[in-house]
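Input.
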Amino acid sequence: MDNLKLTIQKILELMGFSEFKIDINEANSTGRIFITSDYDLVKNNLNVLVESINYLINQIARNKNLPFIHFDVNNYRQDREKIIIELAKAAAKKASVTKEEVVLPPMNSYERRLVHLELVSHPDVATESVGTGSNRHVVIKPIN
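Output.
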């Protein structure tokens, strides 16, 4: 893992970042990167930065037979997960009360999975992913 950490450090430096911290938790296959330099650049492009870094690092890891590691940059993914879970709970409540389907906005597969997992034990609703490609989204249906 030290090799992977050095590779990530080189990537970040080549991207122009000078102040950052990298933590890798091998036990749960996650990593966290905190970038403190160029805050506006990071803040304005966080989604693209998170996805790009994850893609690059995991391509490198795959080629070196290292485990898949899911990286979060400046807690973007953690904050996004909280938002998705709260959205799922609110939509489930709305579907239960109105007895009508609630259509969530398009999400990537990871975010859709969060919704499904959050609501799987909810007794009043069922979830289904519909659509294709970038328009794939979750529909929350009331159970009559």
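The chain has a mean pLDDT of 87.
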